[in-house]
Write a structure and sequence with these properties.
Helix content is 35%, strand content 22%. By secondary structure, it is α+β, with helices and mostly antiparallel strands. It has one domain: Endonuclease Chain A (Endonuclease, Chain A), CATH 3.30.870. Helix 2 links the parallel strand 2 and strand 3. The chain is globular.
């Protein structure tokens, strides 16, 4: 059954909230950004599905980084951020010392689960890069698993000049 529901995200999310549409995924992503105070870990194919470059997400990230938070972002493809997320790149210009932008090595074989962690307490997990279906929660075991996964992804990623806009 392909029923589309509108999920409501509140944190802590226990039991986990399930979602099955891109609009719910974007809503959960924005909601999770709003809750973060100390740390954010973001892993996506290219961040187009999250609407990372939106004004609302940019303002939430500005507040988060202004409060001293740290952000680690890993993408498989940099094009969306480099070309369609100027607000996010402006944040990197201002708060680069609090942000780590990485690209997953092309030859790394990693599963297709995309996820976001906030303050090592809450998560948003998309089960596969090509699907909007996933869940959001605050379950300690899932958070611990995703933290281990985030450490591995950081080890097999690298900084890249692809994030920089060409200013000619």
């Amino acid at each position: 059954m392909n029923a589309t529901t509108t999920a409501t995200f509140t944190w802590p999310a226990d039991p986990p909230v399930r979602f099955d549409s891109y609009s719910d995924y974007r809503s959960g992503f924005t909601s999770l950004l709003a809750t973060a105070r100390r740390s954010l870990f973001l892993y996506e194919h290219d961040f187009r599905a999250t609407d990372l470059g939106s004004r609302a997400n940019g303002e939430l990230l500005w507040t988060f980084l202004s409060g001293g938070g740290t952000l680690t972002l890993i993408a498989r493809q940099p094009e969306y951020i480099a070309s369609d997320a100027p607000r996010f790149l402006q944040l990197n210009d201002r708060f680069g010392h609090q942000m780590q932008l990485l690209l997953l090595h092309e030859d790394v074989r990693a599963d297709e689960q995309m996820f976001t962690l906030a303050d090592k307490q809450h998560y948003l997990l998309r089960h596969h890069n090509d699907w909007p279906r996933g869940n959001a929660g605050s379950d300690g075991a899932t958070v611990a698993f995703l933290q281990q996964k985030s450490q591995y992804l950081q080890e097999v990623s690298e900084s890249a000049s692809a994030w920089r806009r060409l200013e000619i």
